[in-house]
Design brief:
The structure holds 2 protein chains of 2 kinds. Chain A is α/β, with parallel strands linked by helices. Chain A is built from 9 helices and 10 strands. The longest helix of chain A has 18 residues. Chain B has one domain. A two-stranded antiparallel ribbon of chain B has the order 1-2. In chain B, strand 1 and strand 2 form a beta hairpin. The chains are: A alpha/beta, B mainly alpha.
Chain lengths: 238, 307
């Protein structure tokens, strides 16, 4: 479904991610882990088209989407949740959800929102509130709900648990796994909390200084004492 | 009474044009020095309409709005869209250059109108219609300008808060990148915002020659007052700009009346707008909107705090 080949990404002419390749099929979760500043978020932005692709290509469902603008990628079934400010703070919860379904035909509109609200019942009572008044967990739920309204087939999440307390972070990750199973989603999960990400993912990509140091099974990376300890700060006695 | 009506009509025209400028600043962070030229474009559209149809310029309102909107849309597509993401200084300098270009284009247009239609296209004014309301005899401008402003600003409110395109405009203004990753066509939304802001200015342009004589470079005389309203209102606040337009419009009208009564030249008029800008930036840089926000948080600056 997603094939990334030798992708180099940067800002202007400055290259941050150097020649990364991986592939992902439906129903699988790929965790992208690595130290701060290793280019995890930039890789995701390059795939989605909000950072400059300086080399390589991105294939989605057999089609080259490297230079396709983000709003078109969304209509093709790709969804991306940025690291910070994933919701519009000055809009109400209802308006945020309405915005997410705007490029759909009107007749498919609100039914989709109602469907998504069944997955996130916490949001039902908050529809009239401005997003800036929500808690961190509620905002992330809203952000994911906004992505899910369009029934994507590929969900790319950039550190969704970054601002959350451990309990809320676990609940959110459980929700993401639930969505993966219900919708047969392919999920790319960029996470600073490497242990959590590797435990819930099928495959892992370890990024160090903009390069892929490891690509393979998450379980194997977790049990690789050298890589896990050196780059992810995970001790051998887990 | 006449003075009051004059202040109301002037404030209304000011509100239309400055709310448009504020919309530009909110959506694209461009302090557009060419914005007053869209008002003048509207005035020239009204002149052309009057010359060709023989009808009163009041009826040219939709055409003037369209002309202002198209001028603003072209400004965005040709100048500001290619410069998106550049520094505020770059955008400001680009808008100054655009101001000169539009003024030159208006000079050429005025030349052509003058030679082909045989009418004065520099320093022109429109004759107003006198109406009788009860026992009161007044110029139509005193009624038409505030009513048009109210109608168009209510329409803008409806557009921003009750329609899908309005939600998109507010979303893009807050976070264009997030809007794009959610599938919003940011370019199209910004183009539409610019069209709306220019259309408001163009509509204001119809009323301008009913009060002042208009020439291709009239924009430079209005610009300072528009910025005074936008800065006093608080950059990025439509409500603040609206209230500030009324304050600036009323005060300026009364001041000019007072000065002329004292025999002082009204050429000092721009000094007032300039003083408003300087004093606001010195005392309350976030303008009226900043003051309201501070009152909501209970952190008013000591000079404003109620005793």
């Amino acid at each position: 479904m997603l094939l990334v080949e030798n992708l180099s990404v940067g800002y202007g002419k400055m290259e941050v991610v150097h020649g990364v390749s991986f592939s992902l099929t439906r129903g699988k979760v790929l965790a992208v882990v690595g130290p701060n500043g290793s280019g995890k978020s930039t890789l995701l932005r390059g795939i989605f088209g909000t950072a400059s692709v300086l080399g390589g290509r991105v294939m989605y469902d057999g089609r080259d989407v490297t230079r396709v603008p983000p709003h078109v990628k969304v209509s093709m079934g790709m969804a991306y949740l940025p690291q910070v400010r994933g919701v519009f703070e000055e809009l109400t919860v209802r308006e945020n959800l309405e915005l997410a379904l705007m490029s759909l035909p009107r007749d498919q509109g609100w039914e989709r929102v109602e469907e998504v609200l069944e997955l996130f019942p916490e949001l039902k009572g908050l529809m009239g509130r401005r997003a800036r008044t929500l808690s961190g967990g509620e905002r992330q739920m809203l952000a994911i709900a906004m992505s899910m309204v369009r029934r994507p087939r590929l969900l790319m999440l950039d550190e969704p648990t970054a601002t959350l307390a451990p309990k809320a972070a676990s609940a959110l990750v459980r929700k993401i796994l639930e969505l993966r199973s219900s919708y047969d989603l392919a999920v790319v999960l960029v996470e600073q909390n490497a242990k959590l990400a590797l435990e819930v993912s099928d495959e892992a990509l370890l990024m160090v200084s903009g390069e892929a140091k490891y690509l393979g099974s998450s379980g194997e990376l977790l049990s690789n004492p050298h890589l896990a300890e050196l780059y992810l700060g995970l001790s051998r006695t887990r | 009474m006449n003075l009051l009506l004059e202040a109301i009509s002037y404030s209304s025209v000011l509100a239309l044009a400055s709310v448009g400028l504020s919309l530009c600043i909110i959506t694209t962070r461009v302090s557009n020095f060419a914005h007053a030229d869209y008002v003048v474009v509207g005035a020239y559209a009204a002149l052309l309409f009057k010359a060709l149809s023989g009808l009163h310029p009041y009826l040219s309102l939709p055409l003037a709005a369209l002309a202002g909107g198209v001028a603003a849309l072209l400004s965005y597509l040709l100048v500001f869209e290619p410069l998106r993401g550049r520094s505020i200084v770059t955008l400001m300098i680009a808008s100054m250059a655009l101001d000169l270009i539009i003024r030159s284009a208006l000079q050429l247009f005025a030349d052509h109108v003058q030679s082909f239609l045989g009418i004065f296209a520099r320093g022109f004014v429109f004759r107003d219609i006198t109406v009788q309301l009860g026992g009161l005899k007044l110029e139509l401008l005193a009624v038409a300008a505030p009513l048009t402003s109210l109608f168009l600003l209510a329409l803008l409110y409806f557009l921003l808060f009750k329609t899908r395109i309005g939600i998109r405009m507010r979303a893009v203004a807050e976070n264009a990148e997030l809007a794009e990753v959610l599938g919003v066509n940011v370019e199209r939304t910004l183009s539409f915002s610019w069209f709306v802001s220019g259309a408001l200015a163009g509509a204001a342009g119809v009323f301008l020659p009913l009060r002042f004589s208009v020439s291709p470079d009239s924009g430079s005389f209005i610009l300072l007052t528009l910025f005074a309203a936008v800065i006093l209102g608080g950059l990025g606040s439509l409500t603040g700009t609206l209230v500030a337009s009324c304050l600036v419009g009323f005060t300026e009208t009364l001041l000019v009346y007072g000065l002329s009564g004292l025999g002082v030249s009204t050429a000092l008029r721009p000094l007032f707008a300039f003083s408003v800008i300087i004093l606001t930036l010195l005392l309350q840089p976030r303008g009226l909107a900043g003051l309201w926000a501070a009152e909501r948080r209970g952190v008013l600056p000591w000079v404003w705090r109620r005793r």
